[in-house]
Amino acid sequence: MSEAMLSIQGLQVAYGGIQAVKGIDMEVREGELVTLIGANGAGKTTTMKAITGIQACTGGDIRYLGKSIRGVPSYELLKVGLAMVPEGRGIFARMTILENMQMGAYLRTDTAAIASDVERMFGFFPRLKERQAQYAGTLSGGEQQMLAMARALISRPRLLLLDEPSMGLSPIMVEKIFEVVREISSEGLTVLLVEQNARLALQAANRGYVMDSGLITMSGDARQMLDDPKVRAAYLGE
Ligand code: ATP
């Protein structure tokens, strides 16, 4: 079989003497929606930060499109189609919504196609269209999440990393965000989704990994994981 789009081998990350990620293996194949679930402090965000070069790895390797990207900074990764929507979103508060979205296209020169992608995002998120001239810092948490996703998608990534998109959002906003995640995935975009809402994440995903105290403790087909008594007891509140 050909190499996965993203492949993580023996990844370790430490903060000082504290080992947050203790040698994990994961892969994401082209076209898949893969989710990484687990409790608070399991190491999910640290894993995402290591993939995107925000946090240094202390061991192992991360390969993307057949090459090691260990230590490659996020702006370089964006050039090769790896985009991330970070936890906490990282939008530009003192720019308008439209300007934030256009920032997502800063590596592109195809003006007409950018404009049509902006319209497509407004189709996904009508609320952003209504407020396009407003400063992004004035948006609600859910609206900022939508904007961060729109900005990442406008870069036309090959692989989208989403870190806890449901965090802090109302059930209606969470539903809306997941609707878009399912839609972009069904259109063929490869997605790695970190989520604490294990049920929604596994319902949307093809495959899942469970992380606990820095280790992958379980992995498999998302449907099967949803039916697994251990997953149900530990992560689905049953
Ligand atoms: P959450 O869902 O709460 O965000 P998570 O699974 O994403 O949890 P991480 O944020 O990756 O977990 O944290 C993993 C461990 O690393 C935790 O014990 C956390 O306290 C620790 N940690 C995270 N960031 C730092 C940091 N900058 N310095 C020191 N320790 C950190």
UniProtKB/TrEMBL annotation:
<keyword id="KW-0547">Nucleotide-binding</keyword>
<keyword id="KW-0067">ATP-binding</keyword>
<comment type="similarity">
    <text>Belongs to the ABC transporter superfamily.</text>
</comment>
<dbReference type="InterPro" id="IPR003593">
    <property type="entry name" value="AAA+_ATPase"/>
</dbReference>
<feature type="domain" description="ABC transporter">
    <location>
        <begin position="6"/>
        <end position="238"/>
    </location>
</feature>
<keyword id="KW-0813">Transport</keyword>
<dbReference type="InterPro" id="IPR052156">
    <property type="entry name" value="BCAA_Transport_ATP-bd_LivF"/>
</dbReference>
<dbReference type="InterPro" id="IPR017871">
    <property type="entry name" value="ABC_transporter-like_CS"/>
</dbReference>
<dbReference type="Pfam" id="PF00005">
    <property type="entry name" value="ABC_tran"/>
</dbReference>
<keyword id="KW-0029">Amino-acid transport</keyword>
<keyword id="KW-0997">Cell inner membrane</keyword>
<dbReference type="InterPro" id="IPR003439">
    <property type="entry name" value="ABC_transporter-like_ATP-bd"/>
</dbReference>
<dbReference type="InterPro" id="IPR027417">
    <property type="entry name" value="P-loop_NTPase"/>
</dbReference>
<protein>
    <submittedName>
        <fullName>ABC transporter ATP-binding protein</fullName>
    </submittedName>
</protein>
<dbReference type="GO" id="GO:0005524">
    <property type="term" value="F:ATP binding"/>
</dbReference>
<keyword id="KW-0472">Membrane</keyword>
<keyword id="KW-1003">Cell membrane</keyword>
<dbReference type="InterPro" id="IPR030660">
    <property type="entry name" value="ABC_branched_ATPase_LivF/BraG"/>
</dbReference>
